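Note to self: user wants both folds in one dump. Writing first protein now.
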Amino acid sequence: MIDLLKNLPDQPITIKTSGENAGEGSFECIWNSGNSSLPYFAAADYPEIKGTTDDAITVTFPAHTLCEGISSTIYATADDEMRPAMNGIFFDMDVDSTTLVASDSHKLICYTTKDTKIGEKASFILHKKPAAVLRSTLDKEEGDVSVSFDSSNVVFRFGNTMMVCRLIVGKFPDYRRVIPQNNANILRIDRAQLLDTVRRVSVCANKASNHIKFDLAEGQLEITAQDLGFALAAYEKILCDYKGENLSIGFKSSFLIDILNNMDCTSLVMKFADSRRAALIIPSEEEESSSKICGIIMPIMV
């Protein structure tokens, strides 16, 4: 039906059922110069749409905030059959703010907003597939989105649309425990400059590991990559604002590119403890999104 409509010119069409029993059989799609016959099934065969129970919790999101939150986190979700809770976005709602979290164990992204609050702490996990559909539907939506959820389902209502999604049942890890608090080595740098440099250097990284190395010293950052099997190597030095101990730390370039590419800030801050612990990535203090987004990336041993 969709393929047919895409190929029809811009003109009125008539849809007419045929057969003795209007509940099943075929229908006719008629346009100015032709027609088409397509089968259909009885409406009674469509599965019952189950919403939420009477004790469901309801909260309201501004449409642009919900869309931005999903866009900022969905790329960090996992594909893990053994841990299905990691395959979705965790909505962590509290009296002060709401945080959307996604992680694949190699990187973790948090998006926090004060636009949505709730009377008591509550949470649910939305699978990334319906989250992607919701994001595309909300992309041009204005106004508010009503979100009602219980232990099994969540219902999103906005405009003339209602979307019912089954939730992931499981416990999301305590993400707050893994967010570094006292990383003393601090790099301040232009996001686009760092992203472009990582992309260039990673061309020569090993295709299996995508391993690149940061060598940090006062006022400068050196990024290197090599693939010994194909005799490939790349090196680039950039000036930056770095304060802390001299440090060498490795990352998987594809994970770092994902994080940098999905942050919309102009400049960012990376905070390091040492070469073995996670690095924290946040927009710089003067950015509007400084308190909204934070990312964590696990290092690779160099």
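First done. Writing the second protein, which came from a different request thread.
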Amino acid sequence: MRDFDLNLVRAFVLLYETRSVTATAESMHVTQPTVSYSLQKLRRRFSDELFRRTGGGLVPTTTAQALYPPLHHALAEIESTLSGAHSFDPATACARFTLALSDLGEVTLLPRLMAALAARAPGVTLTVRPLDVDSAVDQLGRGEIDAFVASPLISSQRVTRIPLFSEGYVGMVARDHPRLRGAAMSVAELTAERHITVFGPTGHHGPRRALEARGLLDRVVLEVTRFSTLPYLVQDSELVAMVPRLVADAFASGHRVRLLELPFDIEPAQVSVYARHSHARTPAQQWLTGFMHETLARPGAAPAQP
């Protein structure tokens, strides 16, 4: 077993979890040929193909499926011990993390993160990049960002999803809207009004889909790319917007807008932190994901992975 080192175990576990040589190489910060060479050594060691290549990625063999649980457990134990020896102390550390957030995240989540950082990790600073759900996983793999928060459910095996909360939607109109004066609007009222929707790279497509399902897209007179523009456009018009409840509360406290209950349910957005697999995170990144979950998650959310 002299040629069977920890990096071989790490390569196997990441290949199993990501089903991708490319993603494994990114997570281990090595080249793809290095991962392919590790896979060859693993195949020789276990006298098995371990992973078969298909159009959808690598598929583990029966042998690989049997090996994964004990090797995953062993790797987790070893890395837990090693990270303890090189732990991240937020109270004394000086570190900078880069996050990708939507404009909603910047309005509703970032203030809470900054307040908690000031109290618990005064030497930690953040850089925020705009979220593009189509490229965020690649950015994470390349090390350009440390984590991102998104509402679309991303099923990529290259990242770990850490649920934070689910969020519904409400209607938002000008405070002095001439027709919509109650606490809720009816289907007939919603149908009669003109609408503004958000269509961009950050997710939250539920309101537009709800209008489309009811044949109301012809009532949309304005599309914008960011939710943060909505209160400025709504407060001086008769337009109706459908907005995630958390940010709607923030808008209502600082703008001349009013919130109304919708006459139908829109599928709640599932807001989550996405990060590298735990085996590929540094001790600092391990702390970051745990900190974000602890600060932002609502009761009942799944615990962050160690």
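Dump finished. Worth passing along: The chain has three domains: 6-85, 95-166+269-296, 169-260.
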